[in-house]
Amino acid sequence: MIHLDRKMRKQGLNFEQTASFLHKLKRDSWIAKPVTTYWNRLFGELMKNGKPRKDVSAKTFLTKFFHEQQGETSVTMDHVKRLFVHLNSLQVPRSGDSSEVPADPTARIDKDRFEAYLNSHDNDAFDPNREIYQEQSMNRPISEYWINSSHNTYLTGDQITSASSVDMYSHALYRGCRCLELDIWDGDVVDNVPRPVVWHGRTMTSKILFKDIIRTIKLFLNFHPDTFPLILSFENHCTLRFQEVMAEQMVRILGNSLYVPTEESLSQGKLPSPMDLRGMVIIKGRRPTELDLDDAEDYEDDVSDDGAPSTVYGSDFGDSDLAKAAAAASKKKVQYKISPSLARLTLFHGNKLKSWESSILNPTHYMHSFSENKVRSLARKTDRRTWTVYNETHMSRTYPAGSRVDSSNYLPILPWSLGCQLVALNFQTNDAALKLNDGRFRENGNCGYVLKPDSLLEMHDKEESKELQSLRVSIRVLSGACIPKPNEEKNGEIIDPYVRVSVFDVKNGDKAGFQSFDTVVCYNNGFNPIFNSEKFSFRVDNTAVAMLQLAIYDKASTPTVSDVFVASASIPISCLRKGLRSVKLFDTTNTRSGAIDFASLLIEVKLSKGSKKGDKDDLIAMEHSRSRKVAMAEF
Q1: Cα dihedral sign for 261, 262, 267, 272?
Q2: Which of 11, 195, 283, 595 has CB atoms 3.0–4.6 Å from 346's, for a disulfide?
Q3: Are 497 and 550 a contacting pair, CB within 8 Å?
C-alpha cells in the first residue's frame, strides 16, 4: 500500500503515509469490525442493483440510523444534509470499498465517514445537551443544586501520616470542586501575631498556613472571576484570638470576593442563587443568633466532621471585650465560642439535628453535616421524604467515615438521592466513587453546580408515588480506539485491554450498590481492540442518580499481579443516550490530554422500561457466559 525506497525508509513516514498505514491496519480487521456489521445490518450489504454497498443516501441515513437505531426522532433532513457536508469535507483515507466523494456533498456518505461520525463528539453517549453550561438554570436557590465537594482537601494521602499541601486546593478547584474543607487549629505566634494552621488535628499529618490557602483561592478567582460560588467548609478548632486573625486575613486577602451576609439577606426566607453569588467565597461554619459574646450560644453538643468534639475555648486577648467574654464564658462553663468578626462572615450555620420537623422550621442558612454511616442510618430509620423536603430549602453536607484512614471514598449516590447538596469526597483518591463524582459534574459545563432533578424538588407539593417504574439498561461494548498504555507509558509490552461495565444505583431508597461485568480481554491490541461483547443487562431503580461507569484495565500477565487501570468514563443514566454511541475516556485526573485525548469506546446502548419496583430482582444479567466475571457489591 505504501511503497518506500531505501532512502524514504530511513526518513520514516510523513503524516499522510502514517494516516494511510493506520487506516489499513483498521481496515484489515473490518471482516469482524462492528462498524461493518452495523453498516450491513442498517443499510444492507448489497445495493438494489446487487452490487456491494459503498455509500448510503441522506434519506436512508435519516430513517434507518437516526430515527430507528438512535431514537433521535427530532433529527430532520436539513440536519442530515449539514452533517453530510461536514463529513464529506473530512480528509479520511479511503478504503478499497469506499466511494468517491459525491458531487453533491449533501447526498451520500460512505462507510469511512459513517465510522468517523460514530466516533465523533456529536455521537457521544453522554447527551451533549446535558454537558453544556445552562445559564438559565442558575437562578434557583443554592439549596436546589448538587455541588461538587471535597473532604479534608488539604491532604495528599491517608488521614494519619500524609503531608498537607496548599497545592491540593488548586488541584480540587481545577477538577471542578466548589466546596473545600479546612480543619483550622491554633498555630504558633510570631512577633505577637497568631498564625492559624490547617491540618488533620492530633495526627502525624503536616501543617500549612491558613492564609496560604486563602491566597491560593484568591489567585484562582483572579484567573476565573466568573466561577460560581466557592464554599469554604470550616472545621474550626481555634481559640478566639486565632479566629480574629482568620477573619482579618480573609477580609484582607479576598476583599470584594468574600460574601458577607447581612441580617436582611438572612431574613428573606430563601437562600441566594449561584448566579447571585458568582465569583464569591462563602463561609460555612457557625453563626450564632446573637453575636454578643456575653450571650453566646453553647455548642457543647456539636461535633466535628470526624466525630470528635470541635472544642473552641475562650482565649486571652489583652484587655479587650473578648477577654471579659471569655472569663464570663468560663463561669458559665461554655466551651464553644465564636468570634463575632468570624461569625459575621459566615453564611451557613452548622447545627445539630434534633428532628426534621424542627429543622425545617429553622432559618434557611442553618444546615446539617453527617458522616456516611449517619446517612445510611438516617436513610433507614427516618422519613426519607421529609429529609428530601428539608434539602429543598436547607443544606446538608455528608463526608466519609472516620474509619476510612486510607482516604477511600463512599458511594455518593445515596446522599444525592436524598437531595444532599454537599457530598464531600477525598479528592486525593482516584477510586470509582470519585470517578462517579467526575461524571455527575460533567453536566452543566463542569461548573460544579448541577440542578437537582424534579423528583427531588417541590416534594411537598407532590404525592408520593406508590409504584416506581424501573429502567432496563443494556450495554454492548463493541470496540475501542487508541487505548494508551497505563499512565501513558511509552515503553513496555503491548496493552491487553478489557472493559469493566458497572452500574451504580440506589435500591429500596436506602442501599447504594453496584453491579459489574467484564468483557473478554483483547490481547496485544490497544490501537483498535474489538470486544464485540455480549449484552450486559441491568435494572435501574433510581434513574435520577444511577450511573454507568466504563473502565478500561490492562490485564496482568500473572494472577499474583493486579490489573492496571487505564481510563474510564462515568455517565449519569439520566444523561445516557440509546443507540450506537461513542464514549470519551478520561485518565485518573479526569482530563483528556496527551495520549488519552484520542481514546474512546464504541458501545451499543438499549433503554427500555423495566419492571415495577418490588418485583423479583433481575439485576443478574440476562445472558450468562463462562468468559465473563460478575461482581455485585453494596457499600
Answers
A1: negative
A2: 283
A3: no
User: Can you tell me the mean pLDDT for 8-23?
Assistant: 67
Quickly count: other Cβ atoms within 10 Å of residue 328's Cβ. Answer: 15
Is the pLDDT score of 612 beyond 80? Answer: no
C-alpha separations of 88 from 30, 111, 202, 608, 619 in Å = 21, 11, 65, 34, 43
Phi/psi-derived region of residue 381, left when phi > 0, alpha when psi is between -120 and 50, beta in every other case = alpha
Categorize the per-residue pLDDT at 302 as very low, low, confident or very high, splitting at 50, 70 and 90.
very low
In the structure, how many helices (H) and strands (E) does the chain have? 18, 24
Nearest to 269 by CA among 151, 141, 173: 141
Tell me which residue has cell 479511503. 94
At residue 461, does pLDDT exceed 70? no
| Residue 112 host element (H or E) | helix 111-118
User: How many residues are present in the chain?
Assistant: 635
Handedness of CA 371, 376, 378, 379 (dihedral sign): positive
Give the tens place of pLDDT for each residue, 428-441. 999 999 999 999 99
**Residue 88 · residue 101 · CB < 8 Å:** yes
Cell 477538577 locates to: 175
Q: Would you place residue 21 in the very low, low, confident or very high pLDDT band (cuts 50, 70, 90)?
A: low
Question: Minimal CA–CA distance to 452: which of 231, 151, 230, 142?
Answer: 142
Q: Which of left, alpha, beta for 198 (phi over 0: left; psi -120 to 50: alpha)?
A: beta
Q: Which residues contact 507 (CB under 8 A, 6 or more apart)?
A: 513, 541, 542
- What per-residue confidence (pLDDT) applies to 357? 92
Q: What's the pLDDT score for residue 533?
A: 87
Nearest to 441 by CA among 575, 597, 312: 575
* Side-chain half-sphere exposure of 221, counting CA atoms within 13 A: 23
- 33 Cβ partners below 8 Å, 6+ apart? 26, 479, 530
The partner residues of 235 in beta bridges, in order of sequence, read: 183
Helix (H) or strand (E) holding 18: helix 15-27
pLDDT for 299: 33
Write down the residue that cell numbers 453533491 correspond to: 104
Distances (CA, A) of 176 to 264, 424, 468, 512: 31, 13, 33, 24
Give the CA radius of gyration of the chain: 28
Q: Catalytic site residues? A: 151, 200
